[in-house]
From TrEMBL:
Reported cofactor(s): pyridoxal 5'-phosphate
Protein name per Swiss-Prot or TrEMBL: Diaminopimelate decarboxylase
Span of domain Orn/DAP/Arg decarboxylase 2 N-terminal: 33-276
Positions where N6-(pyridoxal phosphate)lysine occurs in the chain: 57
Amino acid sequence: MKRVDNHFEIQGIKVDKICQEFGTPLYVYDADTIVGQLSKFRKAFEGVDFKVKYACKALTNLSIVKLMKTLGTGLDTVSIPEVKMGLSVGFEPEEIIFTPNAVDFSEIEEAVELGVHINIENMSNLERFAKKYGNTKPCCVRMNPFIMAESNSEKVEWWHKQSKFGISIKQIDDVKELVKEYGLVINGIHIHSSSVIMNPEIFIKGVQNVFEVAERFENLDYIDFGGGIKVLHKEDDEIINIFDLGKGLKEELAKFEERYGKKVQLWFEPGRFLVSDSGTLFTEVKIRKNNGHREFAGTDSGFNQLIRPMMYDAYHEIVNTSNPDGEEQMYTIVGNICEIDNFAVDRNMPEIREGDILAIKNAGAYGYSMASNYNSRMRPAEVMIVNGEAKLVRKRDTYEDLVKNQIVIDFDKESLDQKHQELTETL
Ligand SMILES: *Cc1c(COP(=O)(O)O)cnc(C)c1O
């Protein structure tokens, strides 16, 4: 979204025109931004044998997933429906990796039948997998190097938040036992660092850590670094320079391959890095009020449509697209959910008037994909801007969508009344 004269536009289409055509609240994705992020990523790791597996839980709209396929990425999935979504838009099974967490083994069996790469993150399922498939189906193992990092407090801090994920490095001998006993073929290891990669130094420490773990496996074809590369949310954010990451990684990889005696492919699973910036949630201000302490701007959206500010305390830049030159004032921008529902607290913004369209930025990742129908409101429509055209990629929910899976049963009034009477007597 960029400002041109006194209006904002995406690929030459005026924001107000888009909002008029499709209504608000509205998610809008700029395909060019996604292409740009992917090209940055590829350029940063140029010269390395690597694959990008888009982590589609960040934004699962099928047109986005298909865009990724068209751009030549692979796919990282965390559930069987995500696998099926990938296949449905043309991904080959071998381009997809299935990385679930704490699932019933039947899901892994289903994924094997669908032909995708399997990534296992607990001993229970790894043992079942080894018993059932022996040496007939290779798998990737998700490790948690937490324990190994004990000697370095910064690293401990770094891994600490994800201790639920992966097989502890302490259990590596148990993993190897399965290899010996059942012929299990471990051809990949995976270490996802969550959304904490903020500077190259920490990233490189993490990379060294991953390579240390990798050296303990003999037959790796690939090492999967997961996702978790942060993007800029506001101008003074500490932001990772992906080109520095690439440079540091190449140095570490060369050292590793020399020690390991064989080349491996590197996989990355960026989610937010690819789609966060591309998405904007447009919402119209319906109510302005002052409660004696604060100036409120009440919008037609809420945390049911973008939960990140309330759930993660995430900062999202908000632009008043209707009045960019208005006089600056402090506002608390809220949603319409019937409980505390802030998008921004005490934010300095150009004057906000009823009817103004606000753009909540960085809404591409974990925006729509975490939306719900809480308060029985419709989830917004989604639009993609591609080749200078605004295309609807998901319709707004309808009332029928809200109630379609519900079953209204009949009640016997007499017996309920009797129960009511009985329970009242016990009071
Ligand atoms: C969520 C997730 C990702 C993507 O994380 P981002 O922070 O969006 O880059 C990648 N890999 C796995 C296994 C994940 O669960």
